[in-house]
Amino acid sequence: MNQFTIIHTYYNDRPLLQTQIERWNVYNQPVNIILIDDGSQKIPAIDVIKQHELKDYINFSLYRVTEDIRFNSHGCRNLGARLANTDWLVFLDIDYTIQPSDLARLKED
User: Fold this and answer.
1) Percentage helix, strand, coil, to 5, in the chain?
2) What pLDDT does 67 receive?
3) Is 106 helix (H, G, I), strand (E, B) or coil?
4) To which H or E segment does residue 8 belong?
5) Which of the 8 DSSP states describes residue 35?
6) Cβ neighbours of residue 99 under 8 Å, at least 6 residues apart?
7) Cα-based torsion angle of the residue sequence 7, 96, 31, 101 in order, rounded to the nearest 10 degrees
8) What tens digit of pLDDT does each residue of 51-84 get?
9) Which stretches within 10-72 are classed as H helix?
C-alpha cells in the first residue's frame, strides 16, 4: 500500500476550505492531510477548522505562515513537503480534491 500526504495551501477563503473539509469527510479510509495557511489575515484557517469536525481516520495537520508574503504558495508547498513524513506527496489547490475512488487507486501497490 502506497502512503502519501495530500498538501493543500489556503489563503483567506472560508467557503473553499469549508467545502474541502466536507470532501475530506467523505473519504472512507485513512489519509494524511497537511494544510498550510499562507499568512491569512482576514480569515485564518484555524478559525474555519475550529467550526468543523474531521473523521478520526484523517491524519490532519495545520500549519500557518505568520508573515503575509504575496504569492507565497510555492513556499507553502515546500514547507508542506518538508513537514510530510511519507514518501509520496500530492499537492492540491484548495479548490481541488481527490475523489474517494481515486484515493483508493493511489494507495494501491
Assistant:
1) 30, 25, 45
2) 81
3) helix
4) strand 4-10
5) E
6) none
7) -150
8) 999 999 999 999 999 887 877 888 999 999 999 9
9) 14-24, 45-49
Query: Cell digits for 8?
Result: 493543500
Whether the CB-CB separation of 10 and 94 falls below 8 Å is answered with yes
Supply the pLDDT for residue 1. Answer: 66
Cβ atoms of 54 and 6 within 8 Å: the answer is no
Q: What is the DSSP letter of 102?
A: H
Helix (H) or strand (E) holding 74: helix 73-83
Chain Cα centroid distance, residue 61: 8
Per the listing, cell 513537514 goes with 83
How do residues 16-25 score in pLDDT, each as one tens digit?
Answer: 999 999 999 9
pLDDT band at 33 (very low <50, low <70, confident <90, very high): very high
Calpha distance 86→4 (Å, rounded): 5
